[in-house]
Amino acid sequence: MPNVVFHRNGQTFHGEIKENANLVVRAGIRQFPYPNFLYGCGMGKCGKCASLIIKGGEHLPEPNWKEKKRLGARIERGYRLACQLWISHDIELSQEATPLADVVAPGGVG
Amino acid sequence: MQQLMDHVQFRTALENAIKGKSANKAPFSIAWASGKLSRAHLARWAENHYHYVGPFADYLGYIYARMPEQYQEAKDFLLANMYEEEIGGDRHTDLLIRFAEACGTSAARVKDPDNMTPTTRGLQSWCYSVAMREDPIVAVAGLVVGLESQVPSIYRKQTPTLREKYKFTDEEVEFFDLHIVSDEIHGERGYQIVLEHANTVELQQRCLKICEIGAQMRLLYTTALYHDYVAKDIPLSELETAETRVPADERALLQA
Which domains does chain B carry? Predict the structure, then answer.
């Protein structure tokens, strides 16, 4: 089962998830990484679940059309929309308080 | 005499009740999965589906109002579910209309209740009836566990078929995409509510029965779509040939 390491607001959370799990779905049903994971619409629109992939990104599928549309060049900087990802391997990721605002701001997270 | 089931037994029983008995033989589903439907057929599906899923927040609103106030978490779930259906992102029915337009029909035709079959009207009426008259926990079992929780697995199968066999674009089939996440959350939380609050033998049995009826209603709806719109173009004999090429799990998943 994949191990997830998740950073937010200076804290680190660890958890194990079932193979092929979606972190937004898990948070939505009150399982790790709930209550620390930011998410919104679950449909790739709002960008609240945008996450910087620190490790394990090579196991993820290519960004889909919604991620490309919402994240644009931020994908090159390692950002993905968690609501669009089903995770089957260990992964380490982080979220900021307002993920998309942070990555578009000059000198933001990169 | 029936015994009170623990959560594991009860969940398994619910899952079995939802599966139904003969759903994987529905000709409309076989035609869909084998790529035989025309865009006109899919347009008719969208015009009907709108009247089944379009009022989902209305159904939930009735359940919300009757859910006991001490079941705070269940009420909050229903409210969140309604919000997400309507204004949490894109309104779900707007995306259904986008798909319908790609099939060649119009928003006006989709919204016009005269364009649904009597059977679709029956399914919609059953949903309203369950929401308004059943014990609210039984209603959650029927509408959220029995119907909504099935959507992610169905649409996970349908979406690639729509892209690959029917050549729709990503944006045209977004209606199917979005439900994979949101309805997985809604369905699972529905299970949690039913498992927690159906705490008598009688309530558990009523939940199982309504899931069984929900499976029958879905099958009735899907079967009518074939007879009302597709039979004149694609005879059953042609589908019997196609059936052998459509995996059984795919047929089962295409019922809703």
Answer: 7-253 (1.20.910.10)
The pair of structure tokens assigned to A101 is 């605002």
Q: Do B182 and A43 touch (CB under 8 A)?
A: yes
Q: Do the Cβ atoms of A80 and A66 come closer than 8 Å? A: no
Q: What is the pLDDT of residues A73-94, one digit of tens each?
A: 999 999 999 999 999 999 999 9
Please, where are the H alpha helices in B20-150?
A: 27-33, 39-53, 56-66, 72-86, 92-102, 107-111, 118-133, 136-140
Decide: helix, strand or coil at residue B195: helix
Cβ–Cβ of B89/A65 closer than 8 Å? no
pLDDT given for residue A97 in this prediction = 67
ipTM of the complex in this document: 0.77
Tens digit of each residue's pLDDT (9 = 90 or more) over B6-46: 999 999 999 999 886 545 567 888 888 889 999 999 999 99
Mean pLDDT of B70-95: 90
Chain A residues lying within 8 Å of B181, measured CB to CB: 22, 24-25, 42-43, 83
Residues 58-87 of B with CB under 8 A from A: 84
* Structure tokens given for B85: 């259906």
Contact B220, B26 (CB under 8 A): no
Q: How high is the mean pLDDT of chain B?
A: 89
Task: Decide which of 3.30.70.660, 1.20.1260.10, 3.30.200.20, 3.10.20.30 is the CATH code for A3-104.
Answer: 3.10.20.30
Q: What pLDDT, on the 0 to 100 scale, is given for residue A87?
A: 96
